[in-house]
Amino acid sequence: MSARAVWAVFARNMDVFRRYWLNNLVSNFFEPFLYLLGMGVGMTRYVGGIDGVSYTAFIAPGIVASTAMFAATFESTYGTFVRMEFQKTFDAMIATPVNVEEVAVGELVYGAVKAAIVGVIILTVVEVFGFVPGWHYSALLVPPAALLVGLVFSALAMTASTLVPQIDHFNYYITLLITPMFVFSGIFFPLEGLPSAVQEVAWFTPLMHGVRMCRELIFGTWTHVWADALWLAVAAAALSWLPVILLRRRLIR
C-alpha cells in the first residue's frame, strides 16, 4: 500500500470539502449548537448541576464527541455511497495506479479528519460562549480524541456502506445503532443512574468512551482517559480492515 496514493485519495476529498465547506459545516454546526442552547441553557434552570458542574458544562463535552461521531457517520455512509455508486468516483480512482485498499484507507482517514475538524469547531464554540467556564489545559487534546472517535465511526459507517444495496437502507443503521448510542452514552445524564445491564452494554459502545474521554480532558480529571483512548484505538484497529476487504468485494466483481 502506497502512502502517496492514500494521500491522493484523501487530498481529493479535502479539495471537494474546501470547495463546499460552508454546506458541509452548516448541518454539522447548527444541530449541536442548538443542543447546547436548548438542552444546556434551557434545562440548566430546572436540572441544576451534575457532578459539581452546571448542566450545560456537563453535556458540552459529550456534544463535542457526538458531533465527531455524526460527522464521520454521515460522511462515510451517504458521502461514501454517493462516491461509490452514483458518481463512480472509486471506479475512476482504481482505473489509475491507485488500488482499492488505498481508496478505502483514504476514505477512512478523510472521515476521521472531517470528524476532528467539526469537533474542533464545536469545541471552539463551547469556549467562546463560555459553556464550560475554567476548563483545563488538557482540553487541547480533545481534537486528537475527536480524530480517534471519528476513525472508529468512519470504519463502522464505511462497513455499512459496502453492505447496503440502496442508500435508503442507511436509515436502519442510523436509527438502530447511532441514535441509541447518542442517547445512552452519558451525554445528557450520568450512566451510573441506569441499571447495571444498561451500563455494561454502554461500555461496549465507542461513543461512551469518546464522551467520557472528552469530558475528562476538558475538566482535567484524567480518571479514564488512557483506558478510553486504548479502547478506541483497539476498536479502530479491529474495525478498519473490514471496509477495506468489503470494498474490494463490492468493486471488483
TrEMBL record:
<keyword id="KW-0812">Transmembrane</keyword>
<dbReference type="Pfam" id="PF01061">
    <property type="entry name" value="ABC2_membrane"/>
</dbReference>
<keyword id="KW-1003">Cell membrane</keyword>
<keyword id="KW-0472">Membrane</keyword>
<dbReference type="InterPro" id="IPR047817">
    <property type="entry name" value="ABC2_TM_bact-type"/>
</dbReference>
<dbReference type="InterPro" id="IPR013525">
    <property type="entry name" value="ABC2_TM"/>
</dbReference>
<feature type="transmembrane region" description="Helical">
    <location>
        <begin position="21"/>
        <end position="41"/>
    </location>
</feature>
<dbReference type="InterPro" id="IPR000412">
    <property type="entry name" value="ABC_2_transport"/>
</dbReference>
<dbReference type="GO" id="GO:0043190">
    <property type="term" value="C:ATP-binding cassette (ABC) transporter complex"/>
</dbReference>
<dbReference type="GO" id="GO:0140359">
    <property type="term" value="F:ABC-type transporter activity"/>
</dbReference>
<keyword id="KW-1133">Transmembrane helix</keyword>
<keyword id="KW-0813">Transport</keyword>
<feature type="domain" description="ABC transmembrane type-2">
    <location>
        <begin position="23"/>
        <end position="250"/>
    </location>
</feature>
<feature type="transmembrane region" description="Helical">
    <location>
        <begin position="137"/>
        <end position="158"/>
    </location>
</feature>
<feature type="transmembrane region" description="Helical">
    <location>
        <begin position="53"/>
        <end position="74"/>
    </location>
</feature>
<feature type="transmembrane region" description="Helical">
    <location>
        <begin position="229"/>
        <end position="247"/>
    </location>
</feature>
<feature type="transmembrane region" description="Helical">
    <location>
        <begin position="108"/>
        <end position="131"/>
    </location>
</feature>
<dbReference type="InterPro" id="IPR051784">
    <property type="entry name" value="Nod_factor_ABC_transporter"/>
</dbReference>
<comment type="similarity">
    <text>Belongs to the ABC-2 integral membrane protein family.</text>
</comment>
<feature type="transmembrane region" description="Helical">
    <location>
        <begin position="170"/>
        <end position="191"/>
    </location>
</feature>
<protein>
    <recommendedName>
        <fullName>Transport permease protein</fullName>
    </recommendedName>
</protein>
